[in-house]
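Worked example

This section walks through a single chain of length 114. The input is the sequence exactly as stored; nothing has been trimmed or padded.
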Amino acid sequence: MYKWTNKINGKTYLGSTANGKKRLNYYFDKGSLSLKKTPIYMALLKYGHENFTFEIVEYCKPNEAVILEQTYLDKFDFDYNINANANSILGYKHTEETLAKMKGRQNFKGKTLL
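Given that input, the structure is written out below as tokens.
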């Protein structure tokens, strides 16, 4: 389990991984961060890594990581976490801007969204 904390605004992100080295390398690859528009990626790009602290919250076995992450997500609020469920898109909340962009679009079956 790991946590990013923005030193400027105090916002936090909690994550888990089975391969810490690979995951940390991803966070420092600006090209990779630019591919997805998640709050933590956008914040790292906006504020810069020097304005964040990175800390190991807890060590666990890889098969326990998602369960442990869910325990933390249930007990605490992490500002940059957008999903209510660990390792899932369930509970994802689109921003008002994204919802406005999607309104009136059609899905691949020709049905209007929203």
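What to look for: The domain at 2-88 is CATH 3.40.1440.10 (GIY-YIG endonuclease).
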